[in-house]
Amino acid sequence: MMKQARPISVNDRITSIDTVRGIAILGIFLVNFPAMLGIQPLDTRGYTQGADAMFRFGYDLFIQTKFYSLFAFLFGLGFYLFMSRAEAKGYRMRALFSMRLAVLFLLGCLHFLLLWYGDILHMYALVGFLLLFFYRQKASALFVWSIFLMALFMLFIWFAFSGDIDLDQKVLLEAPWFNGLEDYAQKVSQRYEMLSGIQILNVIIYIPELLGLFLLGLCAGKINFFQRVHEWKRGLRITQIVSLVVTILLFIPMFRYYFSHEVYVSEEIQKYIQLTGKTLFVFYLVSIVLLLENKRFRAKMQGFTYVGRMALTNYLLQTLVTVLLFSLFIPNTAGIPLWIGFIFCITIYLLQIMFSKWWLSQYAFGPMEWLWRCATYMQKQPLRLKQQSRDRS
Questions:
Q1: What average pLDDT score do residues 375-393 get?
Q2: Distance CA 112, CA 125 (A)
Q3: Distance between CA atoms of 38 and 193, rounded to whole angstroms?
Q4: CB of 135 within 8 A of CB of 78?
Q5: What is the pTM of this model?
Q6: Mean pLDDT of 345-373
Q7: DSSP-assigned letters across all residues of 211-268
Q8: Coil vs helix vs strand at 46
Q9: From CA 211, how far away is CA 76, in angstroms rounded?
Q10: Which of 110, 86, 112, 109 is nearest to 98 (CA)?
Q11: Residue 193: is its pLDDT beyond 80?
Q12: What is the pLDDT of residues 206-229, one digit of tens each?
């Protein structure tokens, strides 16, 4: 008889993965903030010279495309952990993971429709189904597939953004009007049209990149990357140095563009932003896991671990709090300077650390993580720590 399927316990988690995930959530929040409030709408791409241009350039250098690459990598790793543990316990792993993705897709669509168009959950869910075809592949084959797919995407980006971009300077220099709650029903209708139209093409375009990052995470899971960092310190330090050097070389044309133009337009150096998104993601990942080998540093990073354990909850909360708070009190959120957004994101994230720490002192999972698990396993799961320990004993 098939065993009753249950999610993993708190003790089964790999802490360093949660820490890296928590860091990725912060980076994604910083990138998402401008788009959530219309500071970076779909039809306006430039930033005037000054504080906004400086912050936008800093984002493009160190944050944009870097942290969603990290988050996508962790999604692939999470796929391996979920499937391998389900398989070891004799569960119907493919059916369970398919249900898990279906629930994630539903959550992503609701997030997209009700709050903002930049949701990544529905894309992860759709592309995630392709992972099922690669689960039995060897780590070496997965690595080759990953590099090939990401190179294919980079090639597309390189040609797509190699031509001159003709943008109306009046559009660039005028702040648009936006309020997330104004004409709310109309905005939901517009987002529905996007989700059922242009977003389908967007998902197809990003399949090579997302699947490539997922497969790299799956490869990392197959070789027990996070559990064997201490064995590979020398190789990881070489990787760290090489990825940093390559990133610095790619920064050169980005700096050259920034200092030679009065109006900074990210799209004109998008190919370099995408390339550094992969090289700097590798540098960030390797640097973090090496630092986490130090117990003192690991203790200082505990706040990120709390947020990472509740990544889904915190990701959705970031959108909800940002859209509601700003839209209720500021008529035109598109006019907010980026530096204010940076301070706001850091402040909200610190509050999320405190909230996550408090919640996890009483409960085994975040609220959205718990709902996700209940829907995946189609049965109510223990939530309180004492209840989970009792049910597993």
A1: 77
A2: 13
A3: 18
A4: no
A5: 0.92
A6: 97
A7: HHHHHHHHHHHHTTTTTSGGGGHHHHHHHHHHHHHHHHHHHHHHHHHHHH-SSEEGGG
A8: strand
A9: 8
A10: 86
A11: yes
A12: 999 999 999 999 999 999 999 999
